[in-house]
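Appendix B, record 7
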Amino acid sequence: MSVPVRRRTYKPADERKAQILDCALRAFAEGGYHATSIADVCARAGIGRATLYQYFEDKRALLVALTESIAERIVAAVRNREPLEIPQGFRPSREQAVSFTRERIVTVLRAAFGDPSTIRLVLRAGRGTDGMVDTILRRIDDVVLEVMEADLRAAQEAGVLRPIDARFVARFLLGGYEKVLLMYVDEDRPIDFDRIAGDAALLEMCGLFKQE
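Structure tokens (predicted):
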């Protein structure tokens, strides 16, 4: 894997650690964890191996720390989203329901998958590489599913949605989002979150059957 070699510069410890993690994210996402070496990460960061080993014991420790950092950011962003509250008896129009759902979807997608390298690491490059990493990645899945289920159940309780299995629907939708996001990344296209959320909202609220 050909990577740009950065000129070595001094950085405070916290900045250097963050830089190493960022370079590792790009390297693992592009080349895969197993094919990426410590030397690849060092070349991107413009540091020697000795500097990297001051912060991380080995490549596995680097991957675990990187995944933990990503998980903390995603979990915080998703959980800080305002909970869905629908007044009892409120009956939104089709346009209102689709518009509102689109905004909720965009919020979660941008919070969890705003960066293409993060998408590739979380959804593909990091999975199956290490038991600890898989546990951390499952935490992301669990939190995203938790907020999606909460939205569906709130809408059910308010009488806006028909009776559904909220757990099944949340997993079905999340799996679809993940596949679509990976398609954008694999095809090297800019991720159009608004388009994804718009089509998903129409599908979620109106289904596929053409109606007058």
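Remarks on this record: The chain has a mean pLDDT of 88. DSSP finds nine helices and no strands in the chain.
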